[in-house]
Amino acid sequence: MSIWKRPASLEALATQCQQTLVAHIGIEFTELGDDCLRGRMPVDARTHQPYGLLHGGASVVLAETLGSIAANLCLADESKMAVGMEINANHVRAVREGWVEGCARPLHLGSTTQLWEIRIEDERGRLVCMSRLTMAVVNRG
What we know:
Blueprint: H1 10-16, H2 21-24, E1 28-32, E2 37-43, H3 56-73, E3 80-91, E4 98-109, E5 113-121, E6 127-139
Antiparallel strand pairs: 1-2, 2-4, 3-6, 4-5, 5-6
């Protein structure tokens, strides 16, 4: 059973993110499953830190992008929106090139807060970053 309350497609999500940081660093949405939003991000000059490794901040951008969009797709009431309150990230593996993929899954879907877990892995399926995102559900406007 799907957790999504608002209609969405991968194409619509990509269009929504045009001309934003998401598009600038090359994040692509890859799957909208029943309880998971997946996306990937290139590990290249746009997302490297000065030593040639994936920048931890770029991993956080991927995590917050997936979690934030997923959180809003879970809201049935169009007068509400979900906004980030807090995010943390544990960086456990360095990546120099290729792609990383994240999957955002809910831990709690409440009427005033949501809690999301975002797991980011390298192309071999190894954990790169584990993030937790707390979202506040607020009135739009």
